[in-house]
Amino acid sequence: MFKHAYVSLLNLHFVIFYVKAILNAVSTVFPKAEHRHCARHIFAHWHKAYKGDEMKLLFWKVAKSYNEADYNDSLKELSDANEEAAKAFTTYKPELFCRAFLSTTMRSDAITNNMAETFNGYIINARTKHLVYMLEDIRVALMERLVSKTKYMEKQTSTLCPRIQAILEKEKTKAACYDVSPSTNTLFNVRHNLDQLNVDLEAKTCTCRKWEMTGVPCCHVVACIFFLHKQPEDYADHWFTREDYLRSYAGNIPPCAGERHWPKVNMRLGPPAIKVGPGRPRKNRIKDLFEDKKKPGTLRRHGMEMTCSLCKVKGHNKRKFPNGGQIGSEVTEPAPKKVKGRPKKSTTTSLSQVASTCTPQAQPTPEHFTTTAHPAQIGRGGRMILGGQGSKGRGTGRGRATTKQGEGQTQAFQSKGKGRGRGRGSTQVIPSGVGVFITEDGTPMTNASGRRGSGRVLTSQSSQV
User: Fold this and answer.
1) What confidence score (pLDDT) does residue 318 get?
2) pTM of the predicted model, to two decimals?
3) How far apart are the first and last CA of the chain?
4) Domain boundaries of the chain, sorted by first residue
C-alpha cells in the first residue's frame, strides 16, 4: 500500500516538473504567446465530483461568458445551485480558461485544445513510424492539404470564409431584437430589455467584448451597422476574408524524390540507435476514465441524469416511475410515435364485403351497362374474359357454360337473351379462390370450390353481355 502511494506521489511530482518545464520553454521561445488551459479537461475533472446535466450547463455557461458581468451572474447562478461546486470552480484558475479574462489581441475565443487534438489525429498513423518516414508522411499530408484548401476557397463567391459567414448570419438574426440610439456617426447605445451596451464602430469595441475577441461583429454591432444601412461583412477583420485565406495557402511544399534517388556520399551514415521498450508501443493518447473509447474526444453518458418520459422529471426513468408505475391525473401518457412510411394496403377481401358491393341498389337504370366480374380481364375486341380456362362455349341463356370432351354442350340458367360462358381446356390460366356472381333476382351466389377450370360469370338483369 505504501509502495503504491509512494509511486503515485513520485509520478505526480514528475508531471508537475514536466508541465513547469514546458511552460518555461514556451515563455522563452514565444514570449508574446498567451497561455490558456483547456476547459474540456478541467470539466472532466470537475464533473467527477459534481454530476448532473444542470451542473454541466452551468459550468459551460460560466466558462463561455465574454465579460465579467455575465461571468459574475453565471457564477452566482452556479453558487445558488451548489455552493461547493462554485468554490471548486474558482480553484481551477478561471483567468486561464474563462473567456471573460482572456486577452482580446489574439482574435480567438477558443478555450479548448481541439486544434491540437485535431492535428494529433491527423498525423496519428505517421507518429508510429521512424523519424525520417514520419516527417515524410507529414510533409506529403501538408502538401496535399495546401492544394485542397486553395481549390475549395477558389470556388467560394462570398466575401468572408464560409464558416465566418455562417456565424455572422446567426448574429444578423439576433440583431432584430435590439434598439439602437446613435450618439455620433460611430458611437451608439444599444438597449435590450433592461441591459444597455456601448458600441464604437471606429475603435471596433463593444461592451460585451465578443467583437474584440473573435473579430466578427456581434449582434449589438450588427444592429448598429443596419442602422447606418451598411453591410456587416465590411466590419469583420480582414484575415477572415476570402483574399487573405487564399494568401495564407498560396505557398507550397516542393515534392521530394524517393530514397533511391538521393545523392550518394562517401561517409558512412547509420540511423540513430533506437531503444525499444517492453510491450507494444503506445499509439493513442491516454484517455479519460469517462471518455468513450469508440468515439475519441467525446464523453460517455456517465454521470448524466436520466429524464422520465412520462412526467418529464429528472432523476428517474419510466421503469422506476414513482407510485408503482401508476400515472396520476397530473401526468399523461406521451403521444404514440407516428409510424413511418405509407400504410400497407389490405390484399384480402372478405366474402361479405364482396357481396355487399355486388348487391344491387335502387338506382335509376343508366343509358349503358358495364359488366363487372371477379376476377375480370379485357380480351381482344373489348370483350371481357371471365375466369376459367379452355375453349369457349355458347348457350341459349345466361350463366355458366360447361363443355365435355371438347363438345360445345352448355348448361344455362333461365334468363332472356343469349349468354356466353367458359369451358374447360388447357390454354387459359385462371386464379383459384372464391367466385362470386349475381343472379337475375339480385341474390349473390358463390363458387367456393376454387378448382382450376371452373369459370365464373357476372350477368345483369336487363342487358346482353
Assistant:
1) 76
2) 0.58
3) 104
4) 34-121, 156-248, 374-403+417-443+450-465
